[in-house]
Batch of 4 targets.
Target 1
Amino acid sequence: MKKSITVFGVMAVSMIAATAQAGTLEDVKARGSLSCGVNTGVPGFSQPDEKNNWTGLDVDTCRAVAAAVLGDANKVSFKPLTTKERFTALQSGEIDVLARNTTWTQTRDTSLGLNFVGVNYYDGQGFLAHKALGVMSAKELDGASVCIQAGTTTELNLADYFRLHGMKYSSVVFDTPEQTREGFESGRCDIFTSDQSQLYAIRSKMADPASAVVLPEVISKEPLGPVVRQGDDAWFNIVKWTLFAQIEAEELGISSANVDDLKANTNNPGIKRILGTEDNAGERLGLSADWAYNAIKQVGNYGEMFERNVGPNTPLAISRGLNAQWNNGGILYAPPLR
């Protein structure tokens, strides 16, 4: 009997916790805006201009959710967060979604009360070195001093890599990407380690970008993506399927430029489903039939977001690589929207 009571008690606590965390969709609608946690400033991913207008791949991910839920991609308030602040802000309900170049790991997905909804950028950790150092490979870094951002997976990856190759290093730790860049640029360390996307972003902000080189080694898998609280499956589904809708839209050839024409004229069942003219997928999410149409029309498909923020024609000049569609040499893939 004691065992039954204990099991019942655990179930009751779990149900109460889930109920307490549920209702994000209703909160967002009542507030009339989405609260999105982003990085304090990483070019291509989340960065404010002088008028505090935010741009970037993570920013666009949140704008797409706002368009899907509220019908307006501009109804977002962006909250810049450090690595130390990001999870607490989400856990406490201070933000509705975290889109802050955050790596999906088993520990984070199971022990923090959070759910990763998918991947909006496949990345990997690398090294940025001063050209004057004269190294061509990370395996030449024995004894190097390393600028690193606190509270990230890069710290553990760095320790593993150097231990594996029998090398030693000294850490110079900072709280924000900007502080880390300044430390590297001022010569406080020999190399800077982070996700390669951030290395390209950091190098683009240096006074002399040509003075630094990204080394060829990629030492980890860093799937980056949006995060929500556990216990609210309805909200989890909304954020997840908004991202998938943008990925699927690119595969189907739907863009912000042609979405109106396709909505009015296409006979393609897959396009009809995603644009809400057949099989109301929005109803299953608690949204209007045009939820995905709004996200695509106002923000674009995944490819448009990538090219606009980090692609070859931006200062970061990153190729699609793993972030290309599955049928075009990459691993980007959305489950069927049906």
Note: The CA atoms of residues 312 and 318 lie 5 Å apart.
Target 2
Amino acid sequence: MEATALKGKVIRGADRGKDLGFPTANLDIPSQDLPKTGVYAVWVRIQGEQRWRPGAAHVGFNLTFGEKTKRLEIYLLEFSGDLYGKTLEVVPVRHLRPEKRYRTAAALIRQMHKDCRRAARVLASKRSSLKKI
């Protein structure tokens, strides 16, 4: 997935991310165009902006909640606002870990905090990768 840009419109999901404290942008991208499942550190550009923002992405099936559709969800590390209907460009920088099913939502939330901290560290060390985009 690294260095291959993905582009898609933000669509409504199950709104579970908001409830977990991590509002995600679900992108409308055909599942066959998505990379292998897992969590990634990503750069994200919002339609109409020049700035690239740091984020964490999940590609997969939301195993903890028993979903059957492979999707791409993005959590922007430095953003608050409404993205519905906007197009996001996503550039993966590093695969952080494989997808995993958690026994409880609390366990998933703890892991999401770790994933976001790791994504932030990876992206801080890869700021120069923005020059290649």
Note: The chain has one domain: 6-127.
Target 3
Amino acid sequence: MSQLTLRLINENLAIHSLTTNSTIPAEVFSASIFFIAKTFDEISIVLPQSIIIDSDEAELNWQALEVVGPLDFTMTGILSNISTVLANEKISIFAISTFDTDYILVKEEFMEAAIKALRKNQYLVI
């Protein structure tokens, strides 16, 4: 697989956890970027941490790398390869996939090391 381009999103993000019967706060929908996932056990919301919502738990100071797409659904190993590079550097990730692309969230304090490791592995990070 040819190496991909990753774009650093210039926004600090928060990852929120809510119970499954929670109402999604209205301010989420006006955010410049947001992700919502609901399972049988929880609701997760990722949005700029400048937007404060009432949640059961929040993880702050995440930044995102966007895999520049759109990516074809026949492409395989994208997240696997990126996560392996970062795992080898002991950098934890929170991954999000959309219809067109993938986002890899890394704690702000580890982003410089993540970018360095990705570039060392022939990823273009812009």
Note: The two ends are 20 Å apart (CA to CA).
Target 4
Amino acid sequence: MAKSNWYESTRWKRVRAAVLRRDGYLCRVSIRYGHREPAELVHHIFPREEFPEYQWCMWNLISVTKSAHNKLHVRSTDELTKEGIELLRRTARKNGIKIPEQYAQ
């Protein structure tokens, strides 16, 4: 399924709504830094194109603001930023997941 079609799917809309509810409609990145900002998006910590096995896992999804989302990956390439990689590493440790070498350094 194409990227834009995937985000329009009924299943994604349901999962997205559940994540936003779970996170109290607040940006989890902002909360980490002591701020309470309304979430606008749901972010895949392990990018779904690279890790399709985790695309529906609730532990792999967090509510974020657009600003926080842009700090987690480069919008033009979808590559994770340093902050996005750190979040992936923390999430991997918490869930006992071995990460690819490119993210391990």
Note: Residues 3-104 form one domain.
